[in-house]
Specification:
This protein has 138 residues and is of the alpha+beta class. The protein has 2 helices and 6 strands, in the order E-E-E-H-E-E-H-E. The longest helix is centred in the middle third of the chain and has 24 residues.
C-alpha cells in the first residue's frame, strides 16, 4: 500500500523574542504562539493545539482514505475535541488524553464501525504517541 520510510520536512522561518513562530510548509504559513493557559498571548494556535489537531486530522484523513477504498458513504457532524495535559508518572507534564466526539451517518453502519476501529488501530500518529485517544460517537 505505502512504501516506508516516508519523510516529511518543515522549516522554521522566523523565531525571535516576542514573536510568533512561523513555519512554511508547502507554501502554507503555519503560526504558533504560547497559549493563554501558560500566560501567553495566544495570537495563533499553540503547540498543544497542533498536537491535538495532528492526532485528529491523522485519524480523519486515514478514515477518508480507507472509506474511499471500500466505497463507504458517510457524514460526520458536531465534531468536538478536547485534550488534557497532566503530570505523568515521572512528574513531567504531557498530553494525557485527546478525546474526539462526533455524530455520524453512514450507508452501512456495520462497515462504518469496523472501519472506525481499524482506523484507530492503523493511524500512524496515534500509534506514535503515548497519549490516550478516546472516541465518543453516535
Amino acid at each position: 500500500m505505502f512504501h516506508y520510510p516516508i519523510e516529511f520536512k518543515l522549516s522554521i522561518e522566523d523565531f525571535s523574542a516576542n514573536n510568533l513562530i512561523i513555519a512554511n510548509f508547502n507554501s502554507t504559513n503555519l503560526r504558533c504562539d504560547i497559549p493563554k493557559e501558560f500566560n501567553g498571548q495566544a495570537r495563533a494556535l499553540s503547540p498543544e493545539d497542533y498536537y491535538m489537531f495532528s492526532m485528529i486530522s491523522c485519524f480523519f484523513t486515514t478514515f477518508l482514505k480507507l472509506a474511499g477504498d471500500v466505497g463507504l458513504i458517510f457524514s460526520f457532524k458536531n465534531i468536538n475535541a478536547t485534550s488534557l495535559i497532566d503530570r505523568g508518572e515521572n512528574s513531567k507534564p504531557f498530553v494525557k488524553v485527546v478525546s474526539l466526539k462526533f455524530e455520524y451517518t453512514a450507508n452501512d453502519t456495520e462497515k462504518f464501525l469496523k472501519l472506525i476501529n481499524f482506523t484507530k488501530d492503523n493511524c500512524f500518529i496515534l500509534n506514535s504517541v503515548k497519549t490516550e485517544f478516546i472516541l465518543d460517537y453516535n
